[in-house]
Specification:
alpha/beta, 11 helices
Length: about 375
């Protein structure tokens, strides 16, 4: 059986104020062309079809168009689940009657997790669709108060699956979670993917997925396997943050043989424009050829240059973010050598402003802040005198 494994489309994504919808349409058209060429038996979309629970209209239209071309035009079934960015209810709507057209999409976790059964020349392949679900949801669905972590939640779900799973068949699970080799914390592969939990661990041990021939995952944006090649993240089809500029984006072609062994091929997708980092002195950057890539510009000039952003965009019109690296280095050194408690009001404000805006505090704003602060101090003194 030939399977296309993709995930984390994040339709409707906005990066630094720039909509990615046209860029997403460009790579999805390539994806559909690959479907026409390779004729896969099934498409897996492992969560985060949308970037937020209430997506913009153009994102909804793009998903509708893409699914229609895959299902109706190419007659290729789709297995999809909700990710942590999706609205489970939105994706779940109409899922029962859409099965007849080959679209199997699961938004809500249910107690009975029945497999979607596909066939190839060797027999049945059972696919278990597990949408993203917080531990509190899993705890309520299975009425098990011991489920307090993401790992315990996934263990409970797999325990439920194993009760009825036919081990004589080839079994595949589709999930959206943070899987690591030993369930221990590891760095995320992208700054654009939000954490699944606050104040606790979101990591799940790969050992839980041993019963399955293949584990098709979404959530982490860099394609990679965990522990062994049977457990794979497809990654996102586009770069969505500065932390992803070195990623190679695409999707996975999974060939499942008669014995349940898998052969994996990474197929690349070419973006309409690349996303990368440009570093250097402003004077040198202005000598570059005009380029429409999405770039994060790191200026190495020691002194503030008025109108630097406008100048950079004469060369890189799609510059997403521009910063002076010297400012960040100075702030980092200052913050590590001096406790913030010891900083005065002006120093704290300058640090806060730079951390929030990514820009150095200009002399003009510094002067305004100083005037306001002095006025507040004067008002406070007058109050004390009255008392």
């Amino acid at each position: 059986m030939k399977i296309f494994h993709t995930a984390d489309w994040h339709l409707g994504k906005i990066v630094q104020g720039v909509s990615m919808t046209r860029d997403q349409q460009f790579v999805l058209e390539q994806f559909i062309e690959e479907i026409r060429k390779e004729k896969p038996d099934v498409i897996i979309i492992a969560g985060d079809l949308y970037d937020r629970s209430v997506p913009p209209t153009d994102a909804i239209q793009l998903l509708n168009k893409t699914l229609k071309e895959i299902l109706v035009d190419e007659k290729t079934p789709i297995l999809a689940i909700a990710g942590n960015h999706d609205s489970a209810t939105r994706l779940n709507f109409g899922s029962e009657f859409m099965k007849a057209s080959g679209l199997h999409i699961v938004g809500h976790l249910e107690q009975n997790i029945d497999p979607v059964i596909m066939h190839d020349e060797y027999g049945e392949v059972h696919f278990y669709l597990v949408p993203f679900a917080e531990p509190s949801i899993v705890r309520a669905v299975f009425d098990d108060q011991s489920v307090t972590t993401h790992e315990a939640a996934m263990a409970k779900i797999i325990e439920q699956i194993k009760q009825t799973m036919d081990c004589t068949k080839r079994n595949i699970i589709i999930g959206h979670a943070f899987i690591t080799k030993d369930g221990m914390p590891e760095p995320n592969t992208s700054d654009s993917e939000r954490k699944l939990t606050i104040g606790g661990t979101e990591c799940i041990s790969s050992a839980l997925f041993e019963p399955f021939c293949y584990t098709a995952l979404g959530h982490l944006h860099q394609a990679h396997f965990v522990a062994n090649e049977k457990i794979q993240y497809a990654g996102s089809p586009l770069k969505y943050s500065e932390s992803e500029v070195t990623h190679k984006k695409g999707f996975l072609i999974v060939d499942l043989n008669e014995d349940g062994a898998v052969a994996i091929e990474k197929r690349m997708l070419a973006p309409v424009r690349d996303m990368r980092v440009v570093t250097g002195m402003l004077e040198d950057i202005l000598q570059h050829k005009v380029n429409d890539d999405y770039v994060f510009v790191k200026l190495q000039d020691e002194h503030y240059v008025k109108g630097a952003a406008e100048l950079v965009r004469t060369v890189y019109p799609n510059a997403l973010h521009i910063e002076r690296t010297v400012v960040y280095e100075q702030l980092e050194q200052h913050a590590t050598t001096m406790n913030r408690v010891q900083m005065d009001d002006s120093e704290l404000f300058e640090l806060f402003y730079t951390e929030i805006t990514g820009k150095p505090l200009s002399d003009e704003i510094k002067e305004i802040y100083t005037d306001v602060l002095e006025q507040l101090i004067e008002n406070e003194r007058e109050k004390q005198e009255v008392l």
